[in-house]
Amino acid sequence: MTFLTTQTEANGPALVRVQELTKRFPVSKGFFTRSQSYIHAVDGISFDLGVSDSLGLVGESGCGKTVMALSILGLIPSPPGEIVAGSSIRFNGEELLEVKPARLREIRGNEISMIFQEPMTSLNPVLTIGRQLTEALELHLKLDGAAAVRRAIGLLEMVGIPEAAARINDYPHQFSGGMRQRVSIARAFAIEPRLLYADEAFTALDELTAARVRKDLLGLIRETGITTLFITHSVPEAVDIAQRILIFGRPGRVIREIDRDKELENGKSIAAIEIMVRDGLQTAREAMIAEGTAEDMTAEDVQKIKAERGI
User: What is the DSSP string of 136-156?
Assistant: First the structure.
């Protein structure tokens, strides 16, 4: 199944173009046999992401959102992960599946930034906050020590860290969860990337902190015009940040696309769009339960499947 989203004509050629992307993992059929089958974590997905576009990926755990995004970034080792022939991932016109590892690292370092779910797993606990910012500035923007420090202080001020000049020599454990995630956001914007990838960026934060950090991040996205690929379980987050939303259904497949801006132009309210997304997620869940692939099926779900299948 192929799901192709419409490229934003106003923004010119796509910055990211994914065509028929299929990612699979081998599964052994038994301990005493070498034969194996495959699980398709991503199954024939296609989409375009134009310059300054924002795309949200929503769906249940295990449906392939993160695997798809990490496949685009080349961050899943092969083996075990295998991208099937016929797949294509182009970034700014360059086929990422054909470039050498050194070139792929260069693209990730200079043009793509990432914000992960838990900042304590992405920030180095033995390096100061300042060093974790200046390292990227020195390596990728070729700034000298003093210039890198000034830029790092400016980045911390940009994301709302109070007394940034005094806090730059602190360590991650001296910051609250919300402040650590703000540091992660500052680091993501440090190299002035063309694409921002955020995976459940607010899940580890309490509701009020998450709302404040999300508001500030959205302001930076709009101010800089950065292209954004955003993964979330939260419908309000997806509708708030993403211009277009892909709803994942059965593992590795997209069952629906919702264009938020077009729906707003057609008179839909934000609340109505959120209902559309929730309806899509419910349809996806029912399909996954019917196939027995939903991650958190209840005993009632299992009994229903057995009854329908005569087991």
Answer: HHHHHS---HHHHHHHHHHHH
